[in-house]
Amino acid sequence: ENSQMKIIRAVKSLIVDGQGRYLLQLRDNVPTITFPAYWSLFGGALEGLETPINGIKRELYEELGYRPSLIEEFLSYKYSIKKVNIIDREVTIFSSFIDSYEIEELELMEGQSLAFFTILELQKENNVVPLDLSTVLMHGLSGTAPSLFNINYS
Question: CA nearest 67: which of 105, 21, 39?
Answer without folding.
Answer: 105
